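Hi U.,

Before I forget, here's the chain from the pilot set. I'm dumping it here mostly so it's searchable later in email.
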Amino acid sequence: MNTSPYTAVYPQQMRPSRYDRAHFLVYLNESSADYYPNEEATTPLPGFSYTGSMSDGGTLIECDELDRNKLINGIIRSRYLQTEEDAIKTHQIQLLQHKAGLESGILSDEKIAEYTQEWADFQAFREETIKYVDKWLEE
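Structure:
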């Protein structure tokens, strides 16, 4: 869903902030970076880089309150539509049925590999999302 990612560097780690009544701005894809406090600075300070869909490096998510489950869902929705997530889960059911010999159709090796990879990608993003949210809420 992100069509034009932006990257920004800050002197401190960023936390979610309310954008409006239905959205939060969150900062994802964190990495260490050199921070220059102004254009004349020649010596960088340690900083944090974020990449997102907003010009400040943040990502706007649908979320109406600072709640763990709502933040996690909002971040997941920033990458996967609900229908995309449903399809990934359906593919996992098909794989399990195939492995158990319950699937009436035969899945090709290509489909098995595709479904396995899409699940791994989804789970990796989900786990990363949970780590971000839990870190924000413990601070």
